[in-house]
Design a protein that fits this description.
The chain is mostly helical. It is built from seven helices and two strands. A two-stranded antiparallel ribbon has the order 1-2.
Length: 125
C-alpha cells in the first residue's frame, strides 16, 4: 500500500485492500480473526458489520468515514509505516488509513494482541 497516492487510496475498494492486509498477516502466521479483531478495535465495526461491508464493497475512504466508533486509544498508535510517521499525518482520513497499516504491520511482525490493541495489562478482547 506504500505506493498508492493519498487521494487514490480513498477511492479504492475496501474489499480489495482488506484482502491485501489479510494476506500480509496470514503470510506471517496470523489469522483472519486477528485481522478482523484489529479492524473492529480501530473502527468500532462489529464482525458481522465488517463481513457485510466486504460484501457491498464500499470505498476505503467511506469505510473509515462511516466508522461507527473510532477507538479513542488509536491516538496511542505511533511509529513509521512506508516511511511516514503515523502520528504526524495531517489529513485525518489518511491518518486513519495509516493507523490500520501500522496495526497490521505490528500483527504481521508477531506483536502480542494486547500490545497491538493498546490495552494495558489486559487482553483487549
Amino acid at each position: 500500500m506504500c505506493a498508492v497516492s493519498d487521494h487514490k487510496v480513498f477511492q479504492m475498494s475496501f474489499t480489495k485492500l482488506y484482502n491485501l492486509l489479510l494476506n500480509k498477516a496470514v503470510r506471517k502466521g496470523r489469522t483472519q480473526a486477528e485481522v478482523d479483531e484489529v479492524i473492529c478495535w480501530l473502527t468500532g465495526y462489529s464482525a458481522p458489520e465488517l463481513d457485510r461491508l466486504r460484501e457491498i464493497d464500499i470505498t476505503y475512504g467511506d469505510f473509515f468515514r462511516q466508522a461507527p466508533q473510532p477507538n479513542p486509544n488509536r491516538v496511542l498508535i505511533r511509529g513509521v509505516v512506508c516511511g511516514v510517521r503515523v502520528e504526524k499525518v495531517e489529513d485525518p482520513l489518511m491518518r486513519e488509513v495509516r493507523y490500520l497499516d501500522k496495526l497490521i504491520d505490528e500483527l504481521a511482525k508477531g506483536k502480542p494482541m494486547e500490545k497491538i490493541l493498546r490495552t494495558p495489562g489486559g487482553s483487549g478482547r
